[in-house]
Amino acid sequence: MADFIFWVIWALIVASAALVAFGNNLIHSVFALMGTFLGVAGIYIFLNADFLAVTQIVVYVGGILVLLVFGIMLTNQISTARISQSSVQKVLGLVVVLGVAAIILTAVLPHDWVGSTLPMEFTDTVTGIGNLLFTDYLILFEIASVLLLGALIGAATLARKEL
Amino acid sequence: MIKLALFILFLPLFSFVFQIFSFRRFEEKKGEWVSVGIQFITLILSLVMLGMMLSKSDPNFSLELHQSWLDLGIFKIDLGVYIDNITVIMLVVVALISSLVHLYSTAYMAGDVRFSRYFGFLGIFTFSMNGIVLANSLFMIYIFWELVGLSSYLLIGHWWEKESAANASKKAFITNRIGDIGMFTGMLIIATVLGTFNFQLIGERIHDGMWAANAGMLFGGIDPHKLLTVAGVLVFMGAVGKSAQFPLHVWLPDAMEGPTPVSALIHAATMVAAGVYLVVRIFPFLTADAMATIAFIGGLTAIYAATIAITQNDIKKVLAYSTVSQLGYMIMALGTGAYVAGFFHLVTHAMFKGALFLASGSVIHAMHHGLHHLNDHETDPQDMRNMGGLRTKMPITFGVFMVTTAAISGIPLFSGFLSKDAILAGTWAYAANVHDGWLAHFHLAWILPVFGFGAAAITAFYMFRLIFMTFYGEAKQPQIFRHIKESPKVMTIPLIVLAILSLFFVFTLPSVNPISDHGWFTTVVQSPESAVTTGPAFDLEHFEHGMHEAHVPAMVTSLLVAGLGILLSVLVYLLNKISAEKLATKLGALYRGSYNKWYMDEFYINGIIRPFLKGCNALGRFDLDFYDHYLINGWGRNTKRTSKGVGMADDLIVDGAVNFAGIIFQWLGWTLKFVQTGKIQNYLIFVLIGAALLYVVNVF
Amino acid sequence: MDHLSSYLVLSAILFSLGLYTVVTRRNAVAILMGVELILNAANINFVAFSKFVTHNLDGHLMSVFIIMLAAAEAAVALAIVLNLYNDRGHINVDEANALKQ
Questions:
Q1: Is A131 contained in some domain?
Q2: Cβ-contact B678, C101 below 8 angstroms
Q3: What's the confidence (pLDDT) of residue C17?
Q4: Are A82 and A34 part of one and the same domain?
Q5: How many independent structural domains does chain A possess?
Q6: Using 50, 70 and 90 to split pLDDT, how confident is the model at C40?
Q7: CB contact under 8 A, C64 and A55
Q8: CA B530, CA B528: separation in Å to the nearest integer?
Q9: A104 inside domain
Q10: B678–C19: do the CB atoms touch at under 8 Å?
């Protein structure tokens, strides 16, 4: 059963991401993106990453996606229900991207990953992440806070009318 | 009981929130009565707690509530509430003075521009003071310690348009900060060695030998006992700042720039007593040496401040120095091991000094009123030289002044006598019996009773001087005098309540013997056992025996010296048998020293602050004149000269080569121009192709 | 679901789709969406390796920081996009080629 659900989610991610990449309607793309984000959260659960799964939903679906929708709504005529989008250099892009994908897959797949047959079971990653955040990763954590502050101020400054 | 305590803690915070956020909305609608009501509710709650505590009457009673606040796995900080008899008594004192001051302020501060802010700050002060009282750990005390510092700062600077008030608030804050650095360091030493801030756990762990086991290892082989002494003295530094002990006392007299009710609440009765309370809390882990230091600083402060108070003419300044002196008494008492006496004096002092300040506020209020009638903005309403003969005009204030002055001078039948006498007996017993601590050598310890009795005599002298100058004699400014009248009821009622609480029986019940030391107070408050096991600790049993023996001689002596002080005061200021001016000229240097506060402020400014600034300036000049001028600019000049030479060579040889290369690249640029589309996505494609090529080349 | 490769393939596909979006879309918001896809692909990789290879939480930490970075990036990028829109009335990236001049 779990296996079946896993593959369903897998397919959901691929399908919705494909809609993001190839869809013609921007609004459809955004909603497909929500499917991708939720699917990735599901994948996290299969990877025993409970904290990340929740964070994924809260930050991506609750935050970034809403920001993106705002971005679309503020930069288009909302009255046109269908917000179409066009693409450039489709063929060239497809070729190059397929090439990159091929390279990644040839690099990754034949490799026999150490310990890949013995998945480790985490229970409750929250405590562990919390401990690491305040010990080994403390400086990164502090830098991240400064970065967020900078982004906050930067975004606010940039978005002001009288720039 | 814990729930009651939490209510008492947080209700004043609600008062603060209400006053700050309602701002002027309720000002005309008597919004201040919300705060007054809240304070009286906390007073009732704390009286209920007192009743519960007295019905148990168990000296070892205690309750504790823990709540983990910050848990980093390896290091935990708990916040919590600790209640024992001392806590309950302190809560009652704080709630009582605070509610009376609130009531008093409704009249005293009427018409002030920042009326609701004033009450809000009183609320946050009461909240943080209750926090200190209820704290169960050094860490929590530190949090609220800073909060009372903040509220003190805000209230001293309440009239910040006046430059002196703004300066005084800064001075208070910064001076306190110096003490707090010591306190924080001491706290960290204790927490490093014992892994906890909790008072009970610190006591237990020191007692179980954890200090002796860990201290040397963690601090490079230092003697654990010495480290404990250092930690104790460092934490005590916090008390030196907050309780205005020598040499950090300078802020308290200046703090009188704040409104008088604030002086009564914060700078006489409660906040400055927080330092004493801190020493009470850390008492079990003080070593004999640390206690000797504390006793000496306290004694020095007591006599030092008393000598200054003699010559001050500002009514509030006299009381301020008197407060410093009395705080010195308490600290000295704790240092000599007279734990009960020290805490007892804290409580009695809170009552009578609160009353004295409020009464002086009543006088100032009346003077202000008189000056207002005359449209006189020049005369200082706080200067005692402008008063005189007020007793007929302000009978209630005068009566309160008399009672509380009697209390502070240590006259029998009043509360101050009981506590002061116990302290003096304590110093006597300490001097006679002490074996450990550095004061024990060469009979040095006898200096403490000398300080104590000396300060007692001087206190009696200057307090009666204050009374005679203010209330007796002829009115020195008759035109003001005519307009003076007694303050309204909301101001006199708190005075009367506090005056009644300065009578002896309040503290000796159920006994009515005015010299009894077996009242309810001494039943519920008893010295804790010393937890120090690393070296000589304080010998409590021996000391209490000695204190018992010293009781009667100390009492007789203290009565004698107080009588002497009063007699002298009567001769000089009431009967004018001895001229004050002649005395002053005869004692020339001493008089000037006392009048100028022994030049302590000047010492700080000229001895520390100026030289420091001068040093900074000198370093700055060194930077400009030497470093910048010779090294940097000199380097620059030399470089300039060299570059000129090099420049010529450049023009000829290098430029030729570069121009040639330039021509080549210009041609290259022209040919490659078609790639530069200016579109990011094209560039990205090129990057990807490049990356792919790199991979292919590397792998195959 | 018990094999690392199934996650790696998923991640590779997600990455490629994201890359394609970034390379071909004209709309700046759509490009941002592509970037989010790429970041998600990286996150899946980190967590999968964390579970199957290193057996510790370092990968999770990386993902946390990436998510945080993505949030910051989205906020700033959208602010830029809004400015672009205010400036030109459209947000087509291929016409924003002032770099050429």
A1: yes
A2: yes
A3: 93
A4: yes
A5: 2
A6: very high
A7: yes
A8: 6
A9: no
A10: no
Which pLDDT score, from 0 to 100, does residue B631 have? 79
- If one counts every other C-beta atom within 10 angstroms of the C-beta of residue A98, the result is 12
Q: Which helix (H) or strand (E) holds B71?
A: strand B62-71
* Contact call for B678 and C101, based on CB within 8 A: yes
Q: What long-range pairs does B213-216 form, CB within 8 A, spacing at least 24?
A: B215/B534
* Nearest chain C alpha carbon to A89: C24
Give the global pTM: 0.67
The predicted pLDDT at position A120 comes to 55
Q: A115 CB near a chain C CB, below 8 Å?
A: yes
Residue A16 and residue A82 share a domain: yes
Are A21 and A77 part of one and the same domain?
yes
* Domain end (from A77, A92, A107): A92
Q: Which range marks the domain in which residue A76 is found?
A: 1-92
Q: What is the pLDDT of residue C44?
A: 93
Spatial distance between the Cα atoms of B555 and B553, rounded to a whole number of angstroms:
5
Percent of chain A with pLDDT over 90: 27
Pinpoint the alpha helices (H) of C1-101. Answer: 4-24, 28-49, 58-88
Tell me, what CATH number does A42's domain have?
A: 1.20.120.1200
Q: Using the beta-carbon criterion (under 8 Å), do A129 and C60 form an inter-chain contact?
A: yes
- Three-state DSSP at B159 gives helix
Give chain A's mean pLDDT: 83
Do both A34 and A84 map to the same domain?
A: yes
Structure tokens at B183: 């306190």
Q: How far apart are CA A15 and CA B236, in angstroms?
A: 70
- Shared domain for A61 and A135, answered yes or no, is no
Those residues with Cβ within 8 angstroms of residue B122's Cβ, 6 or more apart along the chain or in another chain: B15, B35, B98, B101, B102, B105, B155, B262, B265
List per-block mean pLDDT (blocks of 10 residues) for chain B, which spans 700 residues. Answer: 82 83 64 82 88 80 80 75 87 90 85 80 90 88 90 87 86 88 90 84 83 78 84 90 85 85 84 88 86 89 86 86 90 86 88 89 84 75 77 83 87 83 84 72 79 87 85 75 78 87 77 68 77 70 75 81 82 72 70 71 76 83 79 84 85 80 84 71 84 84
Residue A50 lies in a domain: yes
For residue B688, the chain A residue with the least C-alpha distance is A96
Q: What is the DSSP letter of A123?
A: -
pLDDT at B513: 67
Within a domain: A98 = no
Same domain, A60 and A135: no
Distance from CA of B209 to the nearest CA of C (A): 39
DSSP sequence for B429-467: HHHHH--SSGGGGGGGGGHHHHHHHHHHHHHHHHHHHHH
Is the CB of B661 inside 8 Å of chain C's CB atoms?
A: no
Q: What pLDDT is attached to residue B212? A: 79
Which domains does chain C possess? 4-92 (1.10.287.3510)
pLDDT one-digit tens code per residue, A81-134: 456 667 777 888 888 889 888 888 888 887 766 655 555 565 678 888 888 888
All residues of chain A having their beta carbon less than 8 Å from the beta carbon of residue B685 are 89, 92-93, 96
- Residues of chain A neighbouring B692 (CB-CB closer than 8 A): 96, 99-100, 103
* A14 and A84 assigned to the same domain: yes
Looking at the structure, tell me whether residues A59 and A139 fall in a common domain: no
Contact B384, B466 (CB under 8 A): yes
